[in-house]
Amino acid sequence: MKTIMKKILFTLLTLVLFSTGEIKAQNSFFSLQYSMGFGMGDTKDFISPASFRGVGLEYRYFPEPAVGVGFETGYNLFYERKNYATYTQGAESLSGVQYRYIHFVPVLAAVDYYFIPDTKFNPFAGLGLGTLFSEKTIEMGVYNNTTDVWQFSLRPEIGVLFAAPGFDLIVAGKYFTAFKANDNPAQNYFAINLGILF
Amino acid sequence: MKHKIFALALLAGIGLFLGCTVQGPEYVDELDVVYSVYDQKYDFQNKGTYSLPDKIVKINGKTGDEIEYIKNEYAIPTLAQIDKNMTELGWTKVTENPDVQILPAAWTTTNISISGGYWGDYWCWWDPYYCGGGWYYPYPTYSSFTTGTMVISMVDPNKISTDDSREVVWFGAINGLFQGTYISNRINNAIDQAFTQSPYLNLK
What we know:
The complex is a heterodimer. Chain A is mainly β.
């Protein structure tokens, strides 16, 4: 998973260094965001605490002033230490301290509608469609169990673009949902992203 | 330029934040794990006696005369703790014709699977049946354990399969005890936990 994180950070660094530094929100933009995640449903059942380790990257192109299309990816890490407890399933029981992790990487195509284009305060609503990679790990003693899965994913979003002195910012709330597939439960989390446009 | 500096600062902040690894186990006892499994069709309530060897064998891949035992300083308190738990659950220790035999072993290799039961040979010194004999598990269970595990098998000597193997009616595994700092309290606690999480063994 650290490899994925390094690739994402390297990609982000490259985009920042080779960007022109001009705000190009009228035609297209890249956005680099800090992301906080809050587990919902099965995700919250597995790990309760919120995630404060996250990053988002988006690109939007505007064929019309009120319509943005593009892609996004990112990374959120959920983590929880479960105190010593006994877990029983059928005839088997297992006791110990558990460390649980979920790494999420969404890869989505996205379309947004902007309500007040070409203004300093531009709210929008959008929908993303694609896949959500998740790596779920339980560590117990010297043993660990890891499940990797790609699941079909939808991501509704609301947010706002606004102009701060010198740069443009984005604040968005995103609800990531990945549908149940075979033995893999549905995954849901809500993310609050804060970022800069360039 | 100001824009790029801000973006780089944001990126650096995110990188530092992601780079801070999440907290793993801090103390060796956080690695202790207790596992147990049993035959759900077995009627423990109609049993009442058990036997227990006076040594704990090392499962190290060797057989026959090369059997090794763990040191008495560790074995004696461990066996006493097993006795204590069995007594508290209402079982009576006997030396002949027990309803079940309890066979403790320390795992010192990762190359042996518990399935197949050939390591029944390890108790050949104690019960001639195990010379070349074996046992079977009527339920799915972990197939191997790492070094640092103590396993406790409860075998019904009267429940014999068609291939002459005896059934392991209960199986406990305690991992993490023989790595890091040796603390007898951890062993006792783990043995207690193995029986605590197996309430079907309680005859009272």
